Structures are given as C-alpha cells and as structure tokens.
Amino acid sequence: MKFWQQLLSKLKENKKVYLLTVIQNSGSSPGRKGFKMMVAEDGFIYGSVGGGVMEFTLVEEVKILLQNNDLSIFLKKQIHQGNSKDSSGMICSGEQTVVFHPLDTTNISLIKNILNQLKKGNKGILELTSNSINFFENRMRYKFEVSILSEENWNFKEQIGFKETLYIIGGGHVGWSLSELMVKLNFNVVVLDNRNNLNTLENNQFAHKTLVVQYNEITNYIPEGKDTYIAIMTNKYTDDKLVLSQLMRKNYKYIGVLGSKFKLKTMWNILLKEGVSQDDLDSVYAPIGLYIKSETTNEIAISIAAEIIEVKNKTE
User: Fold this and answer.
1) What is the DSSP code (8-state) at residue 276?
2) What would the mean pLDDT of 196-205 be, rounded to a whole number?
3) What is the pLDDT of residue 92?
4) Which of 46, 79, 190, 232 is most deeply packed, by most CB within 10 A?
C-alpha cells in the first residue's frame, strides 16, 4: 500500500513519474514478476525492479526521459548474462522484462481508486498494456496474466490486493512487533484480543484492523481458507488453549502458538486427554517461529515472520 501512497503523493505535487514494472522473469533474475519501482522527475525513487547495476542503468535512463519530457510507454528485456544487446550488466543469469508507464496528474483518480480498494481490503486488477494503464474492481483466478506478442503488443494483468491475511490473537508487545513486520511483507493484518483498554492494541497503528472479542467466539472472526494464517499469543495459557481448541481442526494455511516448550507440552497433554488427536497437534507450529535463539520481542517477531514466509512459499 505504501508504494501507491508514495506514487499518489508525487502526482499530487504535480510531478511526472515513471512506473517501472517487471511483467516477466525467468531463471535467477533478481527482479520478479510484479516488482515495481517509481522514479519521479525530482529524482525521488521508491520500490525496486531487482537492484544492482541493471536497476541503476534503468533509473538513469528514466531520469533523462523525464528531464527531456520524452514520455512514452515502452518495454525492455533484460538478460543478466553475456554481452548481448539486451544485457543488463549483471551476471546472475536469468532474464526479466520491464515495462515503463509515464504518469502525471491525469492518473491521480486511478491511483486513488487503487488505494481506496486496498484500504477496504478489496481486490482489483491492475492492467498494463502497450498503450494504457487501467484498474478494475474485480478478481482473477491467478495472480498474474501475461501476453507478450512483440515490443509493441503486450498485456499484463496483476491481482492487486492482500492475498494473505494474518490473524494475531493477542494484542501485546509481540503482536505489535509482528503487525509492523507482516504489513511490510504485504499481509493483511488483523489483531484480536479480549482485553478492553489495552494500550498495545489501541495504539497499534500497523494492523489494518484491531478488535476486542470474546475468545470463546473466535471462529466468528476468522474465516477458513488457504490464505489465512493464525498466530496465537494471548496473555494466558488458558486462553491459548481455548482459542487453539476451536481453530485447530479447521482449514487454515498456518496456525502457530507462542510459548515455552514446557507450557506447550502441558497444553498438549491436556488436549490429548480431551480427545484431540496427535495428528491435529502435529499440524500446529509450536513453539511458534523458526529457532534463531530469539530473545527480544522484535527478534521473536522476525522468527515468526520467517516461519510464515517459509510456509507461504512452499507451494509457490
């Protein structure tokens, strides 16, 4: 979302901007499909299409175009190996195709529409073509659709919006840190807690939504789905157990529970006695997070985020 906010800000300043988008990649290309960068006529840069000398060269080229007011939509293929005419200067191998769209104040309403849909949690389709840029309030079956017939005839569609949602159950300090990190990783973040007047919940400016709920009704707030991730970190062992017992047999991509090995072993023994199967327990990530000897709340949040990203990318 921040990318579109930065882009809108520059357009409102009446600055011309080039939008660079990777629409195709293969091999070990540093830029992946959907990577974006904006370059404004005042030199402001935000985002990335892969970095390195390749990106530097593209940025310098765009800056000259903006200074000379030589603005048009065009496409560039970058080969990251060898000395061909399309060579990027990098040796990592692979290829990527970047398209360039000049934007000005006439595009403000389009960027506002994208931002409004993102703020509502809605999804839409960004369409880039050889002669236009469009946004539709709709959904696609796949994240990307690409057709490149020639340098003058191509079409790229991308599903814009949050694909994955992380529900953090427990609005304490770790939940705060995890919210900040996961929003940066383009997750829709919802924090739930059963405590009123909780400072770290009320002042959590990172999460897209915060709610005070009753934990015995937790399933009413978390829809099932393979794009749903859950991190349980309440302030009580009994609340962790209450929440987990309601969620663990449902269809979610990820459920993790914060806690010491001793606490979790005690919880597991009780749940087994209550009829929960070992297979159900084995599907839960506990203790939550990759083991990196985390100590501070930020370190714990990083370990959780790393585990979630690992799970998310296993099937991508």
Assistant:
1) -
2) 94
3) 46
4) 232
Residue where a domain terminates, one of 138, 160, 182: 160
Domain final residue, candidates 129, 160, 191: 160
Cα–Cα–Cα angle for 138, 139, 144, rounded to 5 degrees: 120
Q: What is the CA 215 to chain-centroid distance, rounded?
A: 27
Report the relative pairing of strands 225-232 and 252-257 from DSSP bridges: parallel
What is the average pLDDT score of the chain?
A: 91
**Are 67 and 174 in the same domain?**
no
Q: In the predicted model, is pLDDT for residue 88 greater than 70? A: no
> Whole-angstrom Cα distance, residue 131 to residue 74?
9
H or E element: which one contains 163? none
Mean pLDDT for the stretch of residues 211-227: 95
Query: Does 129 lie in the same domain as 236?
Result: no
Domain that holds residue 104: 2-160
Residues 149 and 244 in one domain: no
Identify any residues that bridge with 210 across adjacent strands, giving them in sequence order: 191
Tell me the C-alpha distance between 93 and 79, whole Å. 7
pTM attached to this predicted model = 0.68
Q: Please tell me the distance from the alpha carbon of residue 12 to that of residue 109, in angstroms, as a whole number.
A: 10
